[in-house]
Amino acid sequence: MTPDNLSTTFAALADPTRRAILARLSSGEASVTELAAPFDLSLPAISKHLKVLQRAGLITQGRKAQWRPCRLEVGPLKDVTEWLEHYRRFYEESFDRLDDYLREIQREEKQNDENRTEEEQHDHDE
């Protein structure tokens, strides 16, 4: 996926209404009227959202007689997932290093506490 396509996909995903439309389409195809039902938006406003999703390649609109069902297209989402995968590996490695560091600090604190306890015990015995 080219950076421009990636930018187009992210721009389309930036809007919560469009994300909700995609979530609905993940259950199967739907008409524009069905997609508009949960929103307090006009059909022309929903159509504008659908055009943004279509330009990003996230949905297609078919034709079955009078009905024009919209359906989810997974290609751009797959491309985004692949692009993000690099960063997932990075933050997982960062979290692993952080876990190691925290374990080391806890081990040192435990050792310091044990040393203090031994010193206090030794001072008390004298």
Please describe the structure with a list of short key phrases separated by commas or semicolons.
mainly alpha; 126 residues; rod-shaped; 5 helices; 2 domains; Arc Repressor Mutant, subunit A
Q: Which fold name corresponds to the CATH topology of the largest domain?
A: Arc Repressor Mutant, subunit A
Terminal CA distance: 75 Å
* Helical segment count: 5
For the record, the count of structural domains works out to 2
Shape field = rod-shaped
What are the segments in which pLDDT stays under 50 over at least 5 consecutive residues? none
Radius of gyration: 27 Å
Q: What percent of residues adopt helix (DSSP H or I)?
A: over 70%
- Binned strand content: under 5%
Provide the CATH architecture of the largest domain. Orthogonal Bundle
Task: Summarize the entry for a quick read.
By secondary structure, this protein is mainly alpha-helical. It has two domains: 71 residues, Winged helix-like DNA-binding domain superfamily/Winged helix DNA-binding domain (Arc Repressor Mutant, subunit A), CATH 1.10.10; 53 residues.
